[in-house]
Here is the input.
Amino acid sequence: MNYATVTNRINSLIEQSTTPKFPTLQKENTSFKPTPPNPWLRTTILPAEPTYISTGRHRQLRYSGLVQVDSFIAANTTSNDPSVDKLVNLFNDYNNRYSVEDGYAIIIDYAYRGGSSQGTDWYMTPVMVRWSAMKVGP
Here is the structure.
């Protein structure tokens, strides 16, 4: 399982969304210099340990984890980041649907808001996207 496949799927849902249109997205391991006060997003994959979902000669692994989508707004402006609820809604509207990417069915199970944190320049609120994936075909 290539975990970049999961992150790419999450990123593409954000980038392809036109209603709403989200702020700039920083992808993992890319160079990015935020410019206050412009809001921005960052994705990070947090995989869990794979588990077997079947037994016998052709055991199948289920992969799962979280993709954390951090939403940043300028510090000391408001605690109501409009992107957060829109991200939760985007992924919850997509829940239990799947897409097949690189031979794996990627399922978005649900999304929820995490606890915010205050920095010097930024106020960050994470949106946790629970996902799972299984190999399809032979």
The chain has two helices and eight strands.
